[in-house]
Amino acid sequence: MKKTIYPLPKESLEKRALRIFTPIKDKLCVTCMFAAGSGKKTTIKFLLKEKEIIKKILGKLYDKTIFVYINPDDASGLSSEDYLLILLNSLTLKMKEIGINPVLVNQLNTLELIKRNLEQLVANNIYTVFFLYDFEFLFYLPQNIFRNLESILSVNKSLINFVFLTSVNLFERKILAEFYNLTYAITQSNYYSPLFNKEEIGYIIANFEHSLATKFPDDIKKTVIELCGGHPQLLKYSFHILTKNYDQLSQNKDKIKDFLLNNYQLKNVCYDIWQNFNDVEMKIVSSVCITQKIPPTLINKSDFLLKTKIVQSSTEGHYKLFGKIFDHFVRLQIPKEKLIYDKETNQIFFGGQNYSHKFSLQEFKLLVHFIKNQNKVISRDEIGQILWGSNYVEKFSDWSIDKIISIIRKKLTEIEFPAQNLITLKRRGFSFSNPS
């Protein structure tokens, strides 16, 4: 008998399955949120095929339950009718598998056919659970699709349920408002699938080594883990890329790091993660990237990021992104042309990099004042007060001010910020602006 190869350690898989299938056992809909590329399809399809783990959770209910997996990639077009046809075809196929003849009447529209067949299953006391993969696909359909799904659910809410599988935060207020009465089903119960932990990472790397017939040195594996964190798709692609380019990289950790950080395929994976965030989540991720902090005003909007482990606690009060490849990608999304002062950390950032250390204490104080007062005229007297405090009159020196301004411009040029944005205004003082 062929040995079952689990996508995760069996104990980990059982814990994840328990979170997903316990609400199903309780006759509730469940929203399952994953980081893009973090094993949504692999995990669910394995559990539905393997069966034993689900049987243990559902008990006697399992034998009276059918699971209908819906993949929007099977749709022939971008209409509600196209999506409903997938539901109908998948449902009737499952009915045939359990020996129930589906209702197929030409005079009925697709939605009515789905409901008629569900009524037949309800009459046989069969519990139907639809797994709606890539649920965010429905955002591209006419909004009546959400009313259609609510209509399907209303046939019998104790024997028909949905599992919403998504890489988007469905609980964001603007998104929830799109769902009409389906909001109740979407918010009934939830599960945030976290990126893999240390044990799970080790397990899937061992599986990669087995499938690739390659044993990677421990220091190389450590480097890849630092780069990818617990993101399964990044890990998988990285080891495949390394296998193809192993001789070229000569097992050199620095070469490997640089090669993977700039690999186009891995950048695409990061883009998929990034483009599924809403605007607030992009701000949070960018802030964590450059300041290691979540802005206090946005902490209550960070559930999706924290619970999926895209953003992780590092030291007390500080956060980090899950891996260096994604961190590198995010830094490239932050507009490089703007010089930013973060009040909470008292640091200056440019293009996602902290450059506070480049400036002396006096230079730093003056530059911060310029950033806080962009496009304003800062007089020499004002600069004197910043540099020398209340006794500035006694210490005042035009030569010293011009010297410090010159040094700041030079250092701005070194970090590739346009120094001409710090301009001298004859007999008036100075003015600073960020490029628009």
From TrEMBL:
Transmembrane segments: none
GO molecular function: DNA binding
DNA-binding region boundaries: 329-434
Designated name of the protein: OmpR/PhoB-type domain-containing protein
Top-level division of the source organism's lineage: Bacteria
CDD domains, sorted: trans_reg_C (cd00383)
Keyword DNA-binding (UniProt): yes
InterPro entries named among the record's database cross-references: OmpR/PhoB-type_DNA-bd (IPR001867), P-loop_NTPase (IPR027417), Sig_transdc_resp-reg_C-effctor (IPR016032), WH-like_DNA-bd_sf (IPR036388)
Keywords linked to the UniProt accession: DNA-binding
Native source species: Candidatus Roizmanbacteria bacterium CG11_big_fil_rev_8_21_14_0_20_35_14
Classification via PROSITE patterns: OMPR_PHOB
GO BP of this protein: phosphorelay signal transduction system; regulation of DNA-templated transcription
Pfam families on file: Trans_reg_C
Domain OmpR/PhoB-type: 329-434
